[in-house]
Amino acid sequence: MSHVSTPQRSDDSDAPSPSRHRGGRGRKREKAGGRRIGRKILIGLGVVVVAAAGTGYWLYSDLNDNIKGVDIDKAIGDDRPEKLPTSGQNILILGSDSRAGANGELDKADVSGARSDTALVVHIPEGRKKAVAVSIPRDTLVTRPECTKSDGGKVPSAKRVMFNSVYSLAGPACTVKTVEQMSGVRMDHYVEIDFAGFKGLVDAIGGVPVTLDKPIKGSKTGLTLDAGTHTLNGTDALKFVRTRYGYGDGSDLGRIGLQQKFMIALLAEIKKQDLLGSPTKAYKIADSLTEALTTDSDLASLTKLTDFGRSLNGIDPANMETIMLPVAYDKVDPNRVVAAEPQASTLWKAIRSDSDIPESAKKSPATGGTS
Fold it and tell me: Is 0.90 topped by the overall pTM?
């Protein structure tokens, strides 16, 4: 869960990526980027299921009231792709960094609104035995459709806008609509988790140990770590996954590597502590998680979220494949990428038909190989 055109931020996240002007250096690391991102979603839903089963009604109500809902169907209307002809499911998962509320205490940047730098289309085929997560790079140039904001205002259609600018300008429903129109894939559900939720999750499990093979120094996030093993609390974990300058080649690809390192460590710590076997610990985590969740209205209750979580129990995380949308560097602006064809169309067609994704659809010119 990593944590759009947009104003400059005071963290490490918005400047052009140096690696894009250095030939292939650093790019091949992106081949491995995102292979485990989607697993945290399944674990998070599993935690909610256990917490709901092991607590009283007042705890249930507390968790239930945490969840925020967005009526995606009402906001978008009928201008949507058809649903899958099978029982397969598609979920758009976003990581957001709103400066509102608790998030404002985590990031002092003088920037209004919210952004989403992590976007995954998670496809769960019929049978619920495996899953595929397609990561959409935040700086992919897309056509934004005309949208209606939550306050009723209209946002006009625009070409060649950065994908992650859609969320900050027009909100989650417009992001869903943009993904649906670029892919032809209908999103059955929407799930968003914010900065504060990420911090709360890490603190709820008592911190996460990570091991660095090289130091982090001079990061704009203010994080300085020597090479070696460190147990990060929620605040430092947030800085860690947002670090770019001060580590490696200072590119966005370097940050992707840190994010993957942290997610692997987080999953290992959850398994080590046997959190799903402790209702008390499970409740603490579920409380942090649900407080940070925004979902579509069909999932915006603990009962519905729990039922959905149970439907995913048959998925083995080892069968979760995460790939990047095949992209190529834009010919006009080399700091941006565009969907690579015919790979992208082949990928989305496979998801629409609930079929296996061909290897040819995973090849990304921007990374020089399989994404």
Answer: no
